[in-house]
Amino acid sequence: MNGRDGRVSGPRRLSSMSRQRVIEAQLSWISCTVLFFSTVYVLLKFDVLWIVFGIVALSLYVLPIVTFRNPFKALPWEMTILLSSPILLHVSEGSRLMSEHVAWWDDVTSLAFAFSLSTIGFLLTIELHMYTAVRMNRTFSSFFVMMFTLSMSGFWLLGEYIGDEVFGTSNLQTNDAVMVQLLWALIGGLLMGLLYAAYTRAMPDQRRRTLGLLLMWEVQR
């Protein structure tokens, strides 16, 4: 029923909150299903680097659900989509055709990969807050996300180089392509670091509490 100030109160409000929570969890589960089947696909293809990426992303997704034994502790659906996007582009035949015929498509996939690595870095900050004594404020968290993205891109390129030498593939064709990919990683990490700082600031208290982000508002002495 409505209160004197016109706001919805009582069971109706609780029902509305529960319905929103279920819808968000369902969207997150659907996005994770895409990530799961893409990981299974690269596993069958024995694509080592992408296998590692998929397992790490799935582990970060599952950890809060398993720890709290609550399926509604799933990550926000928008983060799950960002996690899933690069591996989905990697296994997509349409993406390969675009890469062959559209000059800027490789830059799009590099930026998507940077966004995904940034999301992994952001999730690490969340789970460090949830499961350890580590505390970071928003400014340092944004810097951490940017540096994590850049460093992981460097390790990824090193893995591609080793794969080219061992298996005779041609993932890294020129030095310019490597530098461009690192540049996109820097840009993507910087953008996502700033975006996640604004994201946590604008997030409702209830959602921030669910994700364990309350202590990221300020570091408590």
The gist of it:
77% of the residues lie in helices and 0% in strands. With 221 residues, the protein is mainly alpha-helical.
Q: What are the defining features of this structure?
A:
globular; single chain; 221 residues; 2 domains; mainly alpha
Write up this protein.
The protein contains 8 helices and no strands. By secondary structure, it is mostly helical. The protein has 2 domains: 74 residues, no CATH class; 130 residues. It is globular and about 55 Å long. The N and C termini lie far apart (43 Å).
Mean pLDDT: 81
Number of helices: 8
Q: Give the biggest sheet.
A: none
Which percent bin holds the helix content?
Answer: over 70%
The shape, in one word, is: globular
Class derived from helix and strand content:
mainly alpha
* Beta strand count: 0
Q: Which percent range describes the beta-strand content?
A: under 5%
Q: Outline the low-pLDDT stretches.
A: 217-221
Which sequence of SSEs, written as H and E, runs from N to C?
HHHHHHHH
Estimated radius of gyration:
20 Å
CA-to-CA gap between the ends?
A: 43 Å
Number of discrete domains: 2
Break the fold down into its secondary structure elements and pairings:
Blueprint: H1 11-44, H2 48-68, H3 77-91, H4 93-101, H5 105-131, H6 138-167, H7 175-202, H8 205-211
